[in-house]
Description:
Number of strands of chain A: 6
CATH architecture of chain B: 2-Layer Sandwich
Number of helices of chain B: 3
Structural class of chain B: alpha+beta
Strand order of the largest sheet of chain B: 1-4
Strand content of chain B: 5-15%
Largest sheet of chain A: 4 strands, mixed
CATH topology of the largest domain in chain A: Rossmann fold
Order of helices and strands of chain B: EHEEHEH
Number of helices of chain A: 13
Mean pLDDT of chain A: 93
CATH topology of chain B: Alpha-Beta Plaits
CATH class of the largest domain in chain A: Alpha Beta
Oligomer: heterodimer
Radius of gyration of chain A: 26 Å
Largest sheet of chain B: 2 strands, antiparallel
CATH architecture of the largest domain in chain A: 3-Layer(aba) Sandwich
Amino acid sequence: MTLNLEGNSPSQQPAVRTTSSRLTAADHRDHWLARWGVNRGGHRIEPGLYALGRPDPAAPVLVTANYTLSFDALRSALTERDAYILVLDTQGVNVWCAAGEGTFGTDELVHRVEAVGLRDIVNHRTLILPQLGAPGVAAHEVKQRTGFRVEYGPVRAADLPEYLKTHHATPEMRRVRFDLTDRLVVIPVDIVGGLLPLAIAMAVAYLLGGWLSLIAAATAILAGIVLFPILLPWIPTHDFSTKGFIVGFLVALPFALLVFQHNADLTWWLRTAKALTQLLIWPAVTAFVALNFTGSTTFTSRTGVRREIFTYAPIMAGMFGAGLVLTLAGAVIKLWGGA
Amino acid sequence: MFDVSIANTLQFDPVSCNGCGMCLAVCPHGVFARNGRTVQLVRPEACMECGACQVNCSEGAIRVESGVGCAAAMFRAALLRQSTPSCG
């Protein structure tokens, strides 16, 4: 039962679509593809009102985004329940990010409540929103414009069954986390996004320093993309950049030692300089990748990240540049047959 | 030197606060706590500037310059000369 909602006159009853709390194999496949960044922005469902189970006019109305991962997290948490799900048009973006951009917002919510004729479908005036939708929605304004009271539910849909018993969220339900699982699920999309820079870096490294540099480049970048998010809370220091320098230094160290060992024919200072380039270039690269992970987390502030950029980007650039100059100088000296 | 990123623009004016508690509900980092008739800041350093409290404060008692804490978005905005960094 799908009907186009656009262009309905107010007298017409718009279609209420049906859905279930059961996720199919196709749903799981879609989630997997979304996590790998395949067809980003294409994991959408039609905005509008959905009936889960057999909702009566007193059934709760839960609001979500038209991103399949958001919608599916919500409906799969509501097994054996009757409810209405109001899906806002967030252009296939999750609730929190869409709220930050304003698409999961007051205007869209007010518009959607009117468009589906919610007032005539339910006999109460309460909308339950995910807590993370709050950056985009002014609850008092929604009340003023629609008569519906906005109630912010828990952060995670999984806590909804518990929440719906009392309509009270515990402090635990109100907190975002960034557990190992949360950090692991965001890694694939960064791997996909990092493939092109990785390929370019490996090619350039090979041209300048051969196979060892190629492997070092891949190690430095993958350490930032994979190792860094996994180890995040256990790496000392608070700033992402310094954490990145630490991880980068540790993974670059074996390459520095290898370079030192493999150039036994050179004078000691040339050997040391060659080894040093590994400790200048690669930790800077890893730290840069680590700094870019800030946007994937659940706790970095804009002011804090901006300060990090101004503090550490010059250091990263300086280390990278110094390492490059040293590499080129070494190549020139070698070419002249010196040392 | 190693904690320059602990910084935010959150400001709370207890005089304007009517104690509705909306900020307690929307803050994902437990920055606010109830304090008698009003609320108080208990973990201001944990604020990530999402802006949820400011948007949902009917009394205008909270001010914060909200935005995305994403270095990649800021680098992209600088490169493409965008005025506000976004998720692309």
